[in-house]
Structure formats: structure tokens, C-alpha cells
Give the backbone structure.
Amino acid sequence: MKIEKVVVIGAGTMGSGIAQWFAQELCSVELVDNSSEQLERAKKSIFDSWNKLVLKEKLTSIQAEKMKKLIEFKSLDTVTKNADLVIEAIIENLEIKKDLFQKLDGYFSEHTILSSNTSSFPIHLMAEAVTLARRKNFVGLHFFNPATIMKLVEVIKGKESSEEICEELYQWFDSKGKKPAMCKDSPGFIVNRVARNFYGEPLRIVDEENEEKMKEVDRILKEVGGFKMGPFELMDLIGIDVNYSVTCSVWEAYEKEPRFAPHRLQKKMVDEKRFGRKSKRGYYKYD
Ligand code: NAI
């Protein structure tokens, strides 16, 4: 499979990390957002990260300059129509994603693979927004945060996705050092379904806004469970708004099974715009 030209839509936490990873793999990347400020922030964060790698001698300045030339920051109507792969990484809202996919379907060439980095929505529901001809080229590609470091990529075959394209994507990511996993098209796929309880149970254990208790749960899960991050630290990294949307959509999809239920603290945090690291305030403070 040839993946040389990639368009990433949404320059937030995930989109900027995904775009950075593809540029590091020497693909030509166009990163799109409907907010020009967000595009500026993404550019600064990606370039700063490469500059730091140069200082640490993990990258030469020639390599960093080459990557900088490979990535462009753009609005959707100016990107190349003949991209090989498009990855959608916008807000976790099914209707907004479907509206976008309808536009993308009309815009990109026939051969372009359209994919979503959704954390929880079944791929076949999003595929309803595109023409029958496109559906074979419509898949889920779920990266993990931070996308430049986390090796797992879930490759999700929707009802009408081509088996061959999914298999080729799997092989392509494997050849680039990622650890792909082929997944069933079900809400939350593998990791986000299992992870619901990694977040939900600690929230039910702590049950109130108490930083000391949260720290204690984070510490125990790291020390005893061997996790790199505790659940509260991880929710702050992911974004409490994103994590809450995923919780709600998995819970709804499983007919409100209590084990997937969102906790009132998650909603409170979102209502107070305490989204975690990105807003400097979540379960913990980041000043
Ligand atoms: P984010 O909130 O950091 O970024 C979303 C970006 O999309 C924002 O910059 C926003 O301006 C932009 N946007 C919204 N609507 C748009 C549109 N119509 N066209 C162009 N840009 C638009 O969100 P984040 O965390 O990057 O999540 C993006 C997607 O990735 C979601 O589907 C989420 O569920 C998924 N995801 C998130 C993970 C995480 O750890 N945060 C992990 C894996 C998947």
C-alpha cells in the first residue's frame, strides 16, 4: 500500500500528534482545523517538539528541517484532493463527524481512504454519511495519546470496509513500527471498552472532588497495577471533555449498562470547563 500524502483533520491533542507521527515517517502531511489559532498552536507544539529532539541529539537538525517542510497547516478547501489517506480527529460528536464525512466524500479522489480516529462511535454509523462507492474505503484508525509515542493503532473494519484495505493498512502500520490491532466494529472497540472501568471504578471509589484521594488511587494503580499513569492523571491528559463524551457514547451504545455509567464528577468538570491539562485545570491543577 502506498501512503505518501496524508490529510489530518482536527489539530487538537490527537490530530497534531498523528500529523507529527506521519511527518516523522516522511509522509507529506496537511493538517487542517477550522480554528486558525488552533493551527498555530499545533504548529508551535510540533516544531517545539522537534527542536527539543534536536537539542537532545535524538534528531539531527537536517532531519528536523526536512520534517518541517513535509507538514503544512491549512484550511480544508486548500488541501490536495488526491490524498492517499485522510484521518478525521475532530470533536467526538457523531452528527458533526457525519457532516464532515459527507463533505470529505465529495471533495477527495475516488482512491482516497477516509478514516476516523473516533474513540467510541461504530464506523458503520459514520459510513452512512458517504456514498456506497466510498464505503469500501472507509475505516476506523484509532491512535492513542500521545500518538508519536504510543505504538498501538486499532484498525477497525466497518460493515462495508474492504477487508483487503484493512489488511494492507495493518501491514503498513506494522512496517512503520506501530503495533496495529484489527478490531471488531463495536462501541469503544477494544481499549476504550476495557478502559471504561479503569476510569469509572476509581471515580466511584473516590466519589467526590478530593485531590488527596485521587492521588492515592493513582499511586496505588501505578505501584501495584504497574500502570504508567493513574486514572485521574490519564483522564487529565486525554481531556475530561473527550473522556466524558466517550463514556456517554459507550454507555448509550450498551443500553445504559451500569458498569459503563458516567460519574457525576465527569459532568461537573466539563460544565466548569475543567478539561484537564489542556485547560490547566482538571482533577489536578497545572500552573
Ligand atoms: P481536541 O478537542 O483536542 O481537538 C479537536 C480539534 O478539532 C479542535 O482543534 C477543533 O478546533 C477541531 N475541529 C472541531 N470541529 C472541526 C471541523 N468541523 N473541522 C475541522 N476542525 C474541527 O480533541 P482530541 O482529544 O484531539 O480528540 C479528537 C478525536 O480523537 C475525538 O474523536 C476523540 O474521541 C479521539 N481520540 C482522543 C484521544 C485523546 O486522548 N484525547 C485518544 C484517541 C482518540
Notes: The chain is about 45% helix and 15% strand. The pocket of NAI is lined by residues 9-15, 32-35, 38, 89-92, 100, 117-119, 143-145, 238-239, 242, 246 (CB under 6 Å). The first strand starts at residue 5 and ends at 9.
